[in-house]
């Protein structure tokens, strides 16, 4: 037996007169008075009410001489103890037994989301890296279906795979995730088979911007956005809030007034000494057949950190800025001073509107391609589309008298010697053609439009520029590339020809669509002073 702790020694024994236990846990001291306990039958009915005075026995009603037998003693019933939450009750005053609202789960049950990683096998097939506990479908099943999806994307993209080697894997991962999110454990396999069957029916794309490129959700979103944008016909009243003011034109590098001097009095610098735009060395300006060669980087330098060391490397070859160039080409020069540009070919204002009827359009989008010449960088192709995206002008430009080509800059301009051989009209004639489409009231849309206006030698005050509509996070003078904006907002890939260069028609349409997208999805413009016109 365990030793007694004496916890009941302060209580009188209920069987004190007749207790026969040798080691009773209760006290048998004569000075302690016994309190009789009246037994309550288990099945006895509860009284309807009792007076407050009867709730507790008083000292006068207790008799010390009253005997208490073992049969008459009973253990008092335990009081019911409520939890603090139950005792407090609902805050809204109701008598519900539910726990407080802050402990209730609200909303539909959340389905675990399995996010795939970008890991790939040695064959290029993607590997699904997800937690088995988070996936409602067995991981081996998903991986097998993903491999099937990837194989069909490879077949679909066979023409564009060399230029985009990771595209099939990326889209297979996204497509599998889209199917998984829309299906259950029982329907997943059939949904994937249906998705693969639909993939087989797509026409094979010949460029990364083809409508067949992308997952089902991406293609559907592009189609919906394209329908919205095509139905949106841009008008001058819609674009008026986005037209740059005179101060904004100056801030973004536009030439707003004709520079001093006669203009066009020195069309070229052949035989002069200039600083090379590519390698920064001094050279003598010579035409293409006689030009001296230099080594340069055609990409842009950017900051990179390797092994904890920060350094500047080029986007074209990942070499550092102090290493030798990765490409060979002729020395060229580029001018930005307005007076120098004016001496090569004179600036003129866009023509005023005719009061008795005008052939000019209300809204156009414009883009130019430039090449290097003995007269600096000059325009070699001009493309204009109307507000519906229809091509209304696309011409190659022949250089002015005495100006010779040094480099066609094909990687960026897309212009080759064969293209240039078809050029008939010089810049002055091209400007006359532009006058039939653009007057001083026409709103001209472009990306980094100040460069196009400079090379056209045109001064125009009603411009909408997508570098302003979609600003760089670092602010001006930094600008986002048209290619990245088009990919991000339109889901379209442009300028994907690599060394074959850009297309000014493609860039014009992309710029126009970016403005449409901004009108539908972008922030509302802030009120500003109307721009001055000429």
TrEMBL record:
Listed name of the protein: Rexo1 protein
Exonuclease domain sequence ranges: 362-524
Biological process (GO), any one: negative regulation of gene expression
Top-level taxon: Eukaryota
GO cellular component: nucleus
Gene source species: Polyporus arcularius HHB13444
UniProt keyword Amino-acid biosynthesis present: no
Region annotation Disordered: where it falls in the sequence: 37-126
Predominant subcellular localization, coarse grouping: nucleus
Native organism taxonomy: Eukaryota, Fungi, Dikarya, Basidiomycota, Agaricomycotina
Molecular-function GO terms, alphabetical: exonuclease activity; nucleic acid binding
Location of this chain's protein in the cell: Nucleus
């Amino acid at each position: 037996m365990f030793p007694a702790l004496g916890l009941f020694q302060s209580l009188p024994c209920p069987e004190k007169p007749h207790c026969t236990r040798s080691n009773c846990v209760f006290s048998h001291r004569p000075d302690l008075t016994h309190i009789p306990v009246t037994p309550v039958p288990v099945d006895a009915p509860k009284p309807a009410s009792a007076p407050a005075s009867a709730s507790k026995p008083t000292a006068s009603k207790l008799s010390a001489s009253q005997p208490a037998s073992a049969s008459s003693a009973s253990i008092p019933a335990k009081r019911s103890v409520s939890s603090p939450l139950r005792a407090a009750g609902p805050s809204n005053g109701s008598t519900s037994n539910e726990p407080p609202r802050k402990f209730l789960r609200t909303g539909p049950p959340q389905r675990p989301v399995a996010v795939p990683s970008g890991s790939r096998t040695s064959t290029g097939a993607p590997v699904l890296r997800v937690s088995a506990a988070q996936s409602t479908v067995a991981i081996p099943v998903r991986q097998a279906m993903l491999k099937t999806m990837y194989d069909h994307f490879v077949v679909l993209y066979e023409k564009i795979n060399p230029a985009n080697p990771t595209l099939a894997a990326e889209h297979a991962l996204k497509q599998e995730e889209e199917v998984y999110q829309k299906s259950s454990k029982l329907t997943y396999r059939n949904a994937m088979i249906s998705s693969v069957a639909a993939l087989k029916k797509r026409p094979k794309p010949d460029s990364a911007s083809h409508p067949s490129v992308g997952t089902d959700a991406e293609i559907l979103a592009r189609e919906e956005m394209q329908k919205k944008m095509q139905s949106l016909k841009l008008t001058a009243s819609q674009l008026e809030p986005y037209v740059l003011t005179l101060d904004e034109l100056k801030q973004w590098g536009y030439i707003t007034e004709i520079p001093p001097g006669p203009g066009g009095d020195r069309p070229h610098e052949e035989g002069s000494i200039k600083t090379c735009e590519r390698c920064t060395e001094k050279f003598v300006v010579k035409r293409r057949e006689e030009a001296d060669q230099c080594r340069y980087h055609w990409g842009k330098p950017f900051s990179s950190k390797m092994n904890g060391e920060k350094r500047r490397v080029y986007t074209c070859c990942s070499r550092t800025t102090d290493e030798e160039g990765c490409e060979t080409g002729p020395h060229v020069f580029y001018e930005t001073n307005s007076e120098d540009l004016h001496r090569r070919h004179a600036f003129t204002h866009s023509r005023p509107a005719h009061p008795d009827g005008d052939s000019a359009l209300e809204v156009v989008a414009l883009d130019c391609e430039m090449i290097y010449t003995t007269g600096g960088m000059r325009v070699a192709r001009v493309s204009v589309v109307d507000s519906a995206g229809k091509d209304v002008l696309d011409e190659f430009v022949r250089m002015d008298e005495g100006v010779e080509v040094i480099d066609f800059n094909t990687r960026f301009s897309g212009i080759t010697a064969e293209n240039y051989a078809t050029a008939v009209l010089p810049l002055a004639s091209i400007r006359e053609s532009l006058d039939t489409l653009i007057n001083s009231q026409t709103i001209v849309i472009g990306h980094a439009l100040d460069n196009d206006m400079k090379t056209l030698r045109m001064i125009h005050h009603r411009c909408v520029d997508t570098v302003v509509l979609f600003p760089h996070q670092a602010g001006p003078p930094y600008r986002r590339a048209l290619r990245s904006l088009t990919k991000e907002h339109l889901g379209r890939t442009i300028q994907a020809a690599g060394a074959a260069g850009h297309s000014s028609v493609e860039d014009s349409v992309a710029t126009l669509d970016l403005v449409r997208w901004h009108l539908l999805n972008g922030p509302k413009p802030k009120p500003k002073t109307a721009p001055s016109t000429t």
